[in-house]
Amino acid sequence: MSETMPILYVPAPVLRAKARAVGPADADRVRALAPRMLATMYEAPGIGLAAPQVGESLRLIVLDVSGKDETPDPMVLVNPEVIAASKELATREEGCLSLPNQYAEVTRPAVVKVRYQTLDGSRKDIEADGLMAACLQHEIDHLDGTLFVDYLSPLKRNMILRKLAKELKAR
Ligand code: K1U
Ligand code: ZN
Question: What domains are there in the chain, each with its CATH number?
Fold first, then answer.
């Protein structure tokens, strides 16, 4: 298992920055980072992780939405982008490893098509619904500095952010 990395919490500025695209010159860095991000995600535990959450402002995400009784299905997506989204919406509870112990119902497109590159540089498209669709959108949002609380009313968002600040201060 690769070495894990510390996960950054709100209000770390890198979580609000737009991450830059991964280019050919980043190949070695991304190949080293991806297994460490997967190890960090599994240890947390979580079902996804974006590079800014470990302090790397790069367009790289990892995820595994397989259940605990299923075969693990780790995925690494380089430069992922949503290229199509359904009009139909779905609401589900989301959490975030950068806002530990905070949860809220978030409404997003129910089905999305995501284009990305693999670690080998090949281009792929994936169509997802259910938990995978929510997780892909949540992780791609991280690359643009967007957090799930941004979809909530100002009242709910501020309640969560104040509760988080209090809990982190008490640690
Ligand atoms: O990006 C992150 O902060 C990871 C986040 C992803 C996510 C969760 C829920 C909906 C959309 C995206 C998490 O993994 S929070 C932890 C979590 O959901 C979980 C943890 C253990 C078992 C199952 C789920
Ligand atoms: Zn998150």
Answer: 13-170 (3.90.45.10)
